[in-house]
Amino acid sequence: MDSAGFSQFRSFFFVNIFLSSKKEKGSNPQSPACHTGAIPFRYEPTVHLFGWICFKIASTQILLRYMRKAVALVLALSMLLPVALYVWIGGGWSYDIGLWYESGRIAHEQGILNVYRIESATPGVFAGGYFAFPLPWLIICELTYKLVDAFSLEQIAFAYLIRLLPFLAFEATTILLFIYTREMKGEVEAATVAFIYAVGLAIVNWITLVTLGQMDTIPVFFTVLGLLLASRDKIEYAMLSLGIGAAFKLYPLVIALALLIYAFRGRRRGLMRCAVWAIAPLLLVSIPPLIHDAQAYIGAFTFYSGWVGSVTLYFWVYSLLGLNAYLWYGSAMPAGAPLQYIPIITAISLCLLYTSPSPRDLSTSRMPSSA
C-alpha cells in the first residue's frame, strides 16, 4: 500500500475508534437517554456501515490509482515501441523509398509539374509503379531531396527524413484513437485500442510505415481525426479533415461519401456545403498539374485502377473467386478483367451503412414515451 492509501486507511481507523467511543457513551446505563425512556441510538451498525464505506472508497481510490498507472504504462509502450523501431530500421531502403527519392530528384531538376509525365513515359525505370498521388506528397519528396542535396547527405538520411512525417502521423493517430475510445468507453479500453493499433497491428502498420516506407499513415490520421470530429457533431470540420487526407491519397473521399450519407439521411440542409469542404483540398492542389498536363496527371490516378490491395475486402473476394488481384501489372489491361466487382462491393457496403441505425435514432428509441 502506498503512502496515500495508508493515510486513507489511518483516517478510517481513527474514525472507527471515535464512533466506537460514542457508541460506548450512548450505551451507558447512567446516560439520560436510558433513564428517560427514550429509544437509544444504535451506533454499532452505523460504525460498521460507515467503516465499510470508508474502506471501499480507500480501496477503490488505490485501485484507480494503479489502473491509471497501468493505462499510462500501456500508452507509453504504444508510443515508444514504434520510436525504437523507427530508429532501428527507419533508414532502410525499399522500392517506395526509391520512388520518393527519384520523384524528388526529378521535381528538383526538371520541375515538380513534369514528374507525372516523365515517370509515366519511363516504365522501365518504374517497373513497380510510378508516382501516382496528389501534389502535396510530391512537394514533401522534393523538399526532402533538396534538404539532403543541400547538405550532401547520404541516401540513408533521405530514408529517415522521408519516413519522419508519416511516423509522426502514426504517433498522432495513436493519441487520437486513445482520446476517441476514452470518451466512448473508458481509459482502460482506450489504452487497449491504442496498444492494438500501435503494436498489435504490427504486420500492417510497421511493415507499411517502416519496412516499405509508404505514407498511408498521413491520410489515416486525417481520416481518424475526421471521424472523431464527426462524433462530436462537427461535420463540416470532419469533411475538411477527410478532404485534406484525400489530398495525399484518394480513399478518404470514400469515407467522406459514406459519412455524408450517414449524417444527412432524410435532409439536405448543409449537405452541399459539407461536400464542398470534402472535395475542396484535392481540387485546389490539383489545379496546377491539371493546367500543366491534365492527361499525365489524370493518368497517374487511373494507373492503379485494376489493383486490389492485399489488406482490403476486395482482395479476399477476388481470391475466393479465383481472380487475379494484381491486374495493373503489364502494359495493357487483360481482356475480361473483373473490375465490375469493385463497384458492386462498394455499393453493397454503402447500402449496409445507409440502412444501419444512427446513434440519434437509437437514442430516440430509448427515450421514454410521453404517455
Description:
This protein is globular. It has helices spanning 3-26, 32-35, 43-89, 95-110, 115-120, 135-150, 155-184, 187-200, 202-211, 217-231, 235-246, 252-263, 271-302, 313-320, 341-355, 359-366. Helix content is 73%, strand content 0%. The two termini are 53 Å apart. The longest helix has 47 residues, at 43-89. The protein has 371 residues and is mainly alpha-helical.
Summarize the structure.
Helices cover 73% and strands 0% of the residues. It has 371 residues and is mostly helical.
Strand content: under 5%
Query: Which blocks of ≥5 consecutive residues have pLDDT under 50?
Result: 12-27, 31-43, 328-333, 358-371
Mean residue pLDDT: 76
Task: Choose one word for the global shape.
Answer: globular
Measured as a percent range, the helix fraction is: over 70%
C-alpha Rg, in Å?
31 Å
Observed structural traits:
16 helices; 371 residues; mainly alpha
Provide the fold topology:
Blueprint: H1 3-26, H2 32-35, H3 43-89, H4 95-110, H5 115-120, H6 135-150, H7 155-184, H8 187-200, H9 202-211, H10 217-231, H11 235-246, H12 252-263, H13 271-302, H14 313-320, H15 341-355, H16 359-366
